[in-house]
Every structure is written in C-alpha cells, then in structure tokens.
Specification:
This protein is 38% helix and 18% strand. It is an alpha/beta fold and 239 residues long. The strands form two sheets. It has a six-stranded parallel sheet, sandwiched between helices. The protein has a three-stranded antiparallel sheet with strand order 5-4-6. α8 packs parallel to α9. Pfam families: SIR2.
C-alpha cells in the first residue's frame, strides 16, 4: 500500500509514544484517571490552577525529555528521507516526531506541544527554562515578556477551542491523501477522529495499526494489531 501511494498521511496517537515510555493519559491508570484535568477556564481564572498546571507540565516534560523516538517514529521519518510524499498529523504533545527528524512543514500537532509555553494574548513563545525561572523568582505564574499576558503550555487544554488553522490544514491533507494510516489512535477524540472518515470519503485507502479496537475498524482496508515499533521497523527496513 505504501509503495503504491502517491500521497500518504500518517495520523498518530498516544499508542506510538507509549512504546517510547510515555504513558497514555486517557487509559486506565493514566494521568487523567488519577488527576482531574485543569480546564482552560480554570487556568485563566485561577492563579492556583495556573501554578498547579505548570507543576504538572514540568513533571510531564521530564518524562518527555527522557523518551526517545522509537522505530515507529523513525520509520515515518525514513519514508520521507527515501523520497515518499508523506505528512504526519499527530494528537501527541511530546515532540517526538520532531526529534525523529520529521520537518515542521510536514507535521501538524493538532493538540499542540507541551515542550514550550505560549502567550495566550500575543502567542509569543516562551521556553520552559524561562518559565521555570520566572516561577522560581516570583512565586507567581509566568507572564509574557512582550505584552504581559498569561503564558500557558502550548497545548490545547480541556475546554479550549482547537486551533482552526491547524485543523483546516489537517482536513485538506486528509482529502488529498490516497493512503491514510492511523497509528496508535483509539479514534474517539473529536474532531480529530473525523479525519480518517474525510480521507476515506476522498478515496484514500485506510490502514489502522493499533493495539485495541477502534470505531472505524470495519472501514479499514488493512487492520494490524501488535507492536507499532515492530510493524514499522519492518516497513522502514523494506522502504
């Protein structure tokens, strides 16, 4: 299917990163089963919520920093390096696709990226080291050095609108694909879970590689269960 495809989209979820040691937040035992998520509204309204959100982010990003791209991440990057027309749409916020060498202009991080902060007003980027230093120095949540606005991790929080530009690009990429690969996503988080449906309506073949069943398994042209790294290691070696 990869050999025959002219335009490939890989849609990745938590399952590709669990094999790098990053926990799936939504699964039993994951973070959201142990801690109540801090919503966007709570973050904006409460200094206490902001400080707790940043405390969690620092812990989370220590896990991200220790993780390394696995064979699944590396195989997708190797397909691009081999000259294939491939793009990635990811639900993950860990930055592992970037660290695998995949270029930003072919990557959409639908839910953002937890490895840096961003001003909610002017969108100025703020590195985590600067965020931590600001909190340590003042005891208060960080403010934008440009406009003074609130700085939040550059992720889509519960209750926060999805970035329209990123979602519009993801829809366009999905419509143009002739192979759409779902890799490690349960396909239950909306609106991202509509993307394989859009690709299918546009005529794409659909391959699903996931540990557990998904709502679209019956629509797939190819359904693979097992280790994502092992499956894509073979693809990378043969590609």
């Amino acid at each position: 299917m990869i050999d025959a495809a002219q335009s490939i989209v890989a849609f990745t979820g938590a399952g590709i990163s669990t094999e790098s040691g990053i926990p799936d937040f939504r699964s039993p035992g994951g973070m959201w089963s142990r801690l109540k998520p801090i919503t966007y509204g709570e973050f904006v309204a409460s200094e206490e919520a902001r400080l707790e959100d940043w405390r969690r982010r620092f812990v989370m990003n220590e896990d991200f920093a220790r993780a390394r791209p696995n064979a699944g991440h590396l195989a997708l990057a190797s397909l691009l390096a081999a000259g294939r027309d491939i793009r990635i749409i990811t639900q993950n916020i860990d930055g592992l696709h970037t660290r695998s060498g995949f270029p930003a202009d072919r990557l959409i991080e639908l839910h953002g990226n937890s490895t840096y902060g961003r001003c909610l007003d002017c969108e100025t980027r703020m590195e985590l080291a600067a965020v931590r230093a600001a909190i340590d120095d003042t005891g208060a949540s960080p403010r934008c050095p440009v406009c003074g606005g609130l700085v939040k991790a550059a992720v889509v929080s519960f209750g926060e609108a999805m970035p329209r530009e990123g979602m519009n690009r993801a829809v366009e990429w999905s419509r143009r694909a002739d192979l759409f690969m779902v890799i490690g996503s349960s396909l239950v988080v909306q609106p991202a879970a509509t993307l394989p449906v859009i690709a299918r309506q546009g005529g794409a073949e659909l391959a699903i590689v996931n540990r557990d069943p998904t709502p679209l398994d019956g629509e797939a042209d190819l359904l693979l269960r097992g280790s994502i790294g092992a499956i894509f290691e073979r693809i990378g070696a043969s590609g």
